[in-house]
Specification:
Its EC number is 5.1.99.6. By secondary structure, the chain is an alpha/beta fold. The chain has helices at 7-21, 25-42, 59-73, 91-102, 135-146, 192-195; strands at 4-5, 51-55, 78-82, 107-108, 119-123, 151-154, 176-180, 183-184, 198-202. It has one domain (4-205): YjeF N-terminal domain (Rossmann fold), CATH 3.40.50.
């Protein structure tokens, strides 16, 4: 839990856990979502009156969609802003999206204003994003930052390189970041250090055995 890893090492740990140990990716996604759900429900500092979860097309977005379902089933008012590409959803993200549709959780593909919401959960871009973000992605991040709402980032603030801490053009300035299993090297270097806000490292069952061989 105290190990410091870069993106390449984190991906190796993920793949080892999934392919060698045999824990399915969706199981890890559910564990990740449950840790954030527990954080939200246990802490009195989060206003869960109207939660907005910003989701992308990758597994980070899948985490966000799973969190949406958990909050919905707990009786919370939650809306998903799906800001990714519907054509490029990962298999896990697609499955979580379909589950949210089954539960009739509101999913918006365009959002003009963040007024009325009390908390933003940033599940837009994960640790695998590289290079300068396109203008559409940067605009989504600007929207999030300009909302002035409290922000909880899922695994990494969107727009931060989790290995180097560099900005990918625009980045989310989170109040809290819940990162999975290991602290990322980019969280120790500006602007990644500041972007995370209060950093929590949570155990979701990912093995570090891949780093020992």
């Amino acid at each position: 839990m105290t190990r410091l890893v870069n993106v390449q090492q984190m991906k190796a740990c993920d793949q080892y856990t999934i392919k060698t140990i045999g824990i399915p990716s969706l199981v890890l996604m559910e564990r990740a979502a449950l840790t954030i759900f527990t954080e939200l429900m246990d802490k009195k500092s989060y206003d869960l009156s109207q939660v907005l979860i910003v989701c992308g097309s990758g597994n980070n977005g899948g985490d966000g969609l799973a969190i949406a379902r958990l909050l919905h089933l707990a009786g919370k008012n939650v809306t998903v802003y799906f800001a990714g590409s519907s054509e490029h959803r990962t298999d896990e993200c697609q499955k979580q999206y379909a589950i949210c549709q089954y539960y009739q959780i509101p999913i918006l593909h365009h959002l003009e204003t963040f007024l009325g919401f009390t908390l933003i959960i940033d599940g837009f871009l994960g640790i695998g994003v590289k290079g300068e973000l396109n203008e559409a992605a940067q605009n989504v991040i600007r929207q999030i930052n300009h909302s002035t709402l409290p922000i909880l980032a899922v695994d990494v603030p969107s727009g931060i390189d989790a290995s180097t801490g560099a900005s990918l053009g625009e980045f989310v300035r989170a109040d809290t970041t819940v990162t999975f299993q290991f602290k990322k090297t980019g969280f120790t270097i500006s602007p990644g250090l500041e972007a995370c806000g209060n950093l929590l490292v949570v155990d979701v069952g990912i093995s570090d055995d891949a780093l020992k061989v």
